[in-house]
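Weekly structure sync, notes
Attendees: PL (lead), two postdocs, one rotation student
Agenda item 3: pending single-chain targets
PL asked that the sequence for the first pending target be pasted directly into the notes so everyone works from the same version. It is reproduced below exactly as submitted, 43 residues in total.
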Amino acid sequence: MSRWYPQVIGLRQGETDKLAGEVVRFFMSGVYEWEIVFMNQND
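Predicted structure, written out during the meeting:
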C-alpha cells in the first residue's frame, strides 16, 4: 500500500513545500499534473 499524500510546491524563487505563493504545482502520488491558483476573497 502506497503512502503518498497531496503536496504543493511554490513556483517562485524561495518558495518551497512549506511556503508557497499564489500559484503552486500540485503533486498527487508524486506526480505533477496540475497547478493551483490561490485567490484572495477580496480580489
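Discussion points:
- The two ends are 42 Å apart (CA to CA).
- The chain has a mean pLDDT of 90.
Action: rotation student to compare against the earlier draft before next sync.
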